[in-house]
Design goal:
Number of helices: 8
Oligomer: single chain
Structural class: alpha+beta
Helix content: 25-40%
Shape: globular
CATH architecture of the largest domain: 4-Layer Sandwich
Strand order of the largest sheet: 1-12-11-7-8
Mean pLDDT: 86
Number of domains: 2
Largest sheet: 5 strands, antiparallel
Length: 300
């Protein structure tokens, strides 16, 4: 069973005039018993991104509360149904607030479900799976610069300062055709692994090298380390959830242990059979020898 050992969060305004990021659970409300976590980045300005990100967090959370998630992993059908619920709430809000008709937001979502972790995302907010300071897996941005990187036109470092780095190709929006939410299932989790959900504002100053430094740090609460890089430096809002994980099932049943147990049981059975087969003829031989000896003695 995968569980949470430690939680670190950020939901900072940065150098913006207003906060358009939202996180779930709300700042300071998360506990290690929680299973659902989200970080969303609303599209700013007159489009009311702060409301879009809030509605996304609250809408997905209420859907999960009212509809029991499937066991093992979230299905695409379940995620689509949750998305439809959220988009309808955004449209309803836009009807009452016409200025919000173009509201939209990114999404990162993590759901711990027994021995697996389901993740889903839309836009350029990211999800990282970290182990011993190394990036095991990360989500792929739905953005213009990510497409350029993927096609070899620019490097990842160039993407960080590209003038069009804020153009995203997918989002949850109150208007237009619903974007596809990408999803993935993490099955390989070891004690001490981390999951990080973050908005692109955090990534202005945090690259993979600095992530490694923070993840390998022995600091109990890593919040101050993230703040050290971002506070008074990052121009955008910056938000995250960093979850330190445990996996009881991995500890109780290490890789290959079932095969080892089966092999040991077979060895015991085979040894017992061999012992029986070998001892039985010996007993018969001894009995036969004793009988012959007793006959010869009587003749004397």
């Amino acid at each position: 069973m995968i569980s949470i050992e430690q939680i670190t969060y950020l939901n900072e305004i940065g150098q913006r005039s207003q906060q358009e990021d939202s996180i779930y659970p709300a700042p300071g409300k998360a506990s290690i018993a929680d299973k659902l976590f989200m970080v969303c980045d609303g599209v700013g300005g007159e489009n009311m991104g702060e409301e879009a990100s809030r509605i996304a967090c609250e809408g997905f959370a209420s859907f999960f509360d009212q509809n029991v998630p499937p066991r093992g992993a979230l299905t695409e059908a379940y995620i689509r149904a949750a998305q439809s619920n959220v988009l309808q709430q955004m449209r309803n809000y836009a009807v009452e607030h016409p200025e919000a008709q173009r509201m939209s937001t990114t999404l990162t979502l993590v759901y711990l479900n027994g021995n697996t972790i389901s993740v889903a995302w839309c836009g350029d907010s990211r999800i990282y799976h970290l182990r011993k300071g190394e990036v095991v897996w990360r989500s792929t941005d739905h953005s213009l610069v990510e497409n350029l990187v993927r096609h070899g036109e620019i490097s990842e470092e160039e993407a960080r300062i590209h003038p069009q780095r804020n153009i995203i190709t997918r989002a949850l929006s109150a208007s237009g055709t619903p974007s596809d939410i990408e999803n993935y299932v993490i099955r390989d989790v070891k004690d001490g692994d981390y999951l990080m959900l973050c908005t692109d504002g955090l990534l202005e100053q945090i690259n993979d090298h600095r992530l490694k430094e923070i993840a390998l740090s022995h600091a109990k609460n890593k919040r101050s380390l993230f703040m050290e890089y971002c506070q008074e430096v990052t121009k955008d809002n910056f938000s995250l959830y960093l979850l330190k994980l445990n996996n009881d099932s991995a500890a109780a049943t290490p890789p290959g242990s079932k095969k080892t147990i089966i092999a040991f049981a077979l060895s015991v059975i085979i040894l017992a059979l061999l012992t029986f087969l070998v001892k039985d003829p010996i007993k018969r031989f001894i009995k036969s020898s004793d009988d012959n000896h007793s006959v010869m003695t009587s003749k004397k």
